[in-house]
Amino acid sequence: MNNFLLGVVSSSVAALLIYVFRYYIGFILNFVFYKAYPNISGDYLMYSYEQTNEGEIEPSYSDEFDDYYDEDEIEPLYSGATNEGLLEYLKEYSDSSAYVKMKIKQFAFKIKGEIITVKNGIIIEKEEFVGKILPSRIATVSTETTSEEHHNFGTYLLTLTNNNKIIKGIRTFLCVSCGDAASDNIILEKI
User: Would the pLDDT of 162 be above 50?
Assistant: First the structure.
């Protein structure tokens, strides 16, 4: 009987300590696993682009954004460009009044957050995501969003650069309501 009471008391004390120090546990885990899982928490601007079979890169525009430039005015970039060069190129042809921001929160290897699409200062779409980051500097993300016109499912496969300020990858999404599926290349820049 004494062992039973000792077990109940010790379990209760442990549960109380975990409850009291719950906010510090995340910090400790992130500190312990910092070497294994790179930290990518923060806000990122997202740019999408298309790559042709000839190795040319051109900005891609979604339905929410009007074409900022006439396609004939866009000079293609070649696929050998650095990540910084690609970002500068995409910024040159992007509409400053419309952007996509990805807010990432990380706890050890798990990531979650939201992707916000803004046009003329108004949020036109917000979707939440969950995912994980691997020690090999790869992140996988799953999203689901529902609006009046669409019910989208999406996946992102991302790779991190050495300084974690630039993340590059591909996103694929499927609209259950309208049956559309698409894929495009993306690059994220930490702001």
Answer: yes
